[in-house]
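Input structure tokens:
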């Protein structure tokens, strides 16, 4: 049996996409000058790039820079936003100097180490027998020597977020227009929609 540590899994071959000459289009921006400042490190490499860009033709399209699997730290030279993994920079004039700073962390070349972790759901497991599971309880401990009787208590509780009509305003208890049959999630103290939740819920409903 192969040891995954001594014999790391080979990286997958890059996908080849055919690009035809008839599909070629001149770039929206020309980059006549590039200056790079690279701080190499085995764990995390920082790259500072200075780009002198010039608009190519009469258009108003922004500058797009691809940056897959990099950590964007700083951008200057124009109003910017992210479109997926692309950095999109809106430039007012026909020429600008763009400065970016990114960090690159090498991926582990092994099937036993994962650099990217995604949490989809979290489930809490309580190792105890509960008398009132899935319920909210309030308990108060008082000193009997300071009270002649049990003190009066009052609570304003906002409980479950339930389904209410999409045109319903829970705070005002009012509706806008004609209901289209769809729901939204909101807190409400309207007995009608609380009852609807009680009879339709899969866990505690009927």
């Amino acid at each position: 049996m192969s040891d995954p540590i001594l014999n790391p899994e080979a990286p997958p071959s890059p996908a080849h996409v055919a690009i035809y000459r008839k599909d070629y289009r001149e770039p929206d921006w020309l980059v006549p000058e590039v200056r790079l400042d690279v701080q190499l490190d085995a764990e995390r490499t920082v790259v500072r790039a200075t780009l002198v860009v010039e608009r190519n033709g009469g258009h108003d399209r922004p500058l797009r820079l691809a940056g897959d699997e990099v950590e964007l730290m700083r951008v200057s030279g124009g109003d910017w936003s992210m479109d997926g993994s692309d950095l999109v920079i809106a430039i007012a004039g026909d020429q600008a100097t763009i400065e970016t700073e990114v960090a690159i962390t090498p991926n582990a070349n092994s099937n036993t180490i994962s650099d990217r972790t995604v949490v989809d759901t979290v489930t809490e497991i309580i190792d105890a027998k509960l008398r009132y599971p899935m319920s909210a309880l309030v308990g108060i401990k008082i000193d009997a020597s300071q009270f002649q009787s049990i003190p009066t208590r009052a609570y304003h509780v906002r409980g479950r977020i339930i389904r209410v009509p999409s045109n319903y305003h829970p705070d005002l208890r009012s509706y806008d227009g004609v209901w289209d049959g769809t729901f939204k999630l909101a807190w409400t103290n309207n007995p009608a929609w609380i009852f609807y939740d009680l009879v339709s819920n899969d866990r505690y409903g009927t």
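The chain has a mean pLDDT of 83. The domain at 26-104 is CATH 2.60.40.1730 (Immunoglobulin-like).
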